[in-house]
Amino acid sequence: MATSVWKGHLTFGLVSVPVRLFAAARGERISFNQLHKVCHSRLKQPLTCPTCNRTVERSEIIKGYEYEKDQYVLFNEEELDKIEPPSARTMQILEFVKVNEVDPLYYDSSYYVAPEEGGVKAYQLLMQAMEETRTAAIAKLTMHQREHIVVIRPGSKGMTLHTMFYSNEIRAAESVPVDKSELKEPEKKLAHQLIESLEAPFEPQKYRDEYQENLKAMIAAKLKGQEVTEVTQPHLAPVIDLMEALKKSIAEKQGQAAVAPKKPPVRAVEPAPATQKKSGKKAAG
């Protein structure tokens, strides 16, 4: 069973569902250690106190907020537990919104929501009701010493929860330069054609991290004493003639489709003619 990151109750109205959260995704990447260039020893970073001039055990650590230079307000875990809001143990659904109204820009981390013992029926009821109404639930949740606004939505394997950025954490888009020139109908038509030529069902399994693959290949090459092969980079020039660039893109895509190996047509197999079983009796003539 996956490790739970939060346990509590999900409530809507007077209905209370015991649930737990566990991570829905985990990044996988190659990590490097810091080594001393001279002897190639791995560098260590122990927790040390500059005043006592010694290594500090984790049991000796407390938390402090620096309100002035080198001046701290001190807190222990018991004091921090005292100020936990109700959302530390209960996720109360505040409202339901249409799923397509939530801008993915607000999504942060993703978790699966699993029902605990005694909450399966209410869990299924809530999930099915949200599926049929095409809605998502907005709730509050406190974990890791922060109160999050979250969105809960029905998924193919149960309900998923996404912590969200607050509106003041989203950077304004006004800084993005926008060309105010009017687009021409032929340009838009060609852009639509290019989109249609690249349109495909979303299949996440066909995408991969090429940089991580190149790292693995480089590690394997170095272990064998081989030279590292440099990856060829595409030469990109700024677009001068938009119409010409669109036409060339469509022609290139059509050319790729033409040379792609075609699957042989599936032929219907005709059933073999039925053979008459031999019998000792003669057919009536």
Helix-residue proportion: 10-25%
The CATH architecture of the domain at 6-28 and 83-167 would be Beta Barrel
Strand % is 25-35%
Q: How many strands appear in the DSSP assignment?
A: 11
Distance between the termini: 75 Å
Low-confidence stretches: 265-285
- Tell me the strand order in the biggest sheet: 1-2-8-11-10-9-7
Largest sheet: 7 strands, mixed, barrel
Shape: extended
What order do the helices and strands follow? EEEEEEHEEHEEEHHH
Assign the CATH class of the domain at 6-28 and 83-167: Mainly Beta
The helix tally amounts to 5
CATH topological fold name of the domain at 6-28 and 83-167? Ku70, Chain: A, Domain 2
Q: Please compute the radius of gyration using only Cα atoms.
A: 31 Å
Q: Indicate the structural class.
A: alpha+beta
Mean pLDDT: 81
List keywords for this structure.
single chain; 285 residues; alpha+beta; Ku70, Chain: A, Domain 2; 7-stranded mixed beta barrel; two-stranded antiparallel sheet; 23% helix; disordered C terminus
Task: Give structural notes.
By secondary structure, this protein is of the alpha+beta class. It has a domain at 6-28 and 83-167: Ku70, Chain: A, Domain 2 (Beta Barrel), CATH 2.40.290. The chain is 23% helix and 26% strand. It contains five helices and eleven strands; from the N terminus they run E-E-E-E-E-E-H-E-E-H-E-E-E-H-H-H. The chain has helices at residues 77-82, 120-133, 185-198, 210-223, 242-259; strands at 6-12, 15-23, 48-49, 54-55, 63-68, 71-75, 90-98, 107-115, 135-143, 146-155, 158-164. Strands 1-2-8-11-10-9-7 form a seven-stranded mixed beta barrel. It has a two-stranded antiparallel ribbon with strand order 3-4. Helix 3 packs parallel to helix 5. It is extended. The N and C termini lie far apart (75 Å). The model is unreliable at 265-285 (pLDDT under 50).
